Amino acid sequence: MATPALGRRLVACLLNISEARRKDLVETVARAAITDGNGTRREGSTVLNIFNDFDYNRSVITIVASIDLIREAVLSACERACALIDMTAHAGVHPCMGAVDLVPLYPLGEDVGLEDCGREAQALAYDLTQRVVGTSAFFFGWADSPRHRGLAQRRKEVGWFRKDLDISAIKPDVGSHPIRRYGLTGVGASPYVMNCNVTIDTEDITVGRGVAAALRESSPGGLPGVQVLALPHEGAVEIACNVESVQGEPPASFADSAARWPTFSIAGRRFCHAPASLITARVAELAGRNGVGTKGTALVGFTPLECRRLAERALALGIGEFWKQQHKVFM
């Protein structure tokens, strides 16, 4: 039974694995986070959501536990994924480098800091390379100490976006030189990152790239904390956004916006993130300049506050397979 104090120590991992077309395999990986090697229920951990995308051949599994239990829960899922996914046979339109492609840890509770999650992420990566020989990882965020380079920067540095990359030539932060069977895994910690994908009604990837370029944080007039890719998706183009949390109050330039920027705290530090409604409206505006409409918006998982609230509920009720009650959240 969860207690109010437990919520203050919660950590989320939005585990990204390079498989979505075999949903039974994905669920097997998810169950590994909430059961031990004998199949016995692991108390204190829950899987809130599984997001599958067939075209991307990628799934995101939302695992939540206390800072004391999150490493073992995530490690067990990673081990199972490595045993079941062979990157030499992988095909999908979303960029990826590893069977376990991304392992981000996000503090949800007031008593867990980014430094705590960074240390857990480092230990998790080292443990994974010991348990699954041949795996390797690079660090980002607070696991990348002392530089704290962001995920987008680290992905560029290791060649994550390149299609012609010789993965064996990469020097990882931990583990052996990457092998094709497992690929390379990004492991890190940061304030919560929400995934918000807006589909535009065109097959013209050039239009999508123009929208993505104008939307991303690094562009003049772009949205703070928003990193963007334009990808072909189900006969249209998806504007796939990583919505990073930014420290401080909502930017003054968006004070008059109709969409309120959600805020939350990590160890006494205030953070906020761009709301999905604002991202959707901006994509619609940018695409509309090319005579293109939008088809819909999908959130991969939850906002930070929703994630904590649902995790507290799942743990209080002792529900490990919470994803069976909670599926994709559509706006």
UniProtKB/TrEMBL annotation:
Molecular functions per Gene Ontology: folic acid binding; transferase activity
One Pfam family this sequence matches: FTCD_N
SMART domains, sorted: FTCD_N
Superkingdom, taxonomy of origin: Eukaryota
Database matches in SUPFAM superfamilies: Formiminotransferase domain of formiminotransferase-cyclodeaminase
Formiminotransferase N-terminal subdomain domain sequence ranges: 9-191
Protein name: Formiminotransferase N-terminal subdomain-containing protein isoform X2
Organism the protein comes from: Chanos chanos (Milkfish)
Phylogenetic placement of the source organism: Eukaryota, Metazoa, Chordata, Craniata, Vertebrata
Protein encoded by which gene: ftcdnl1
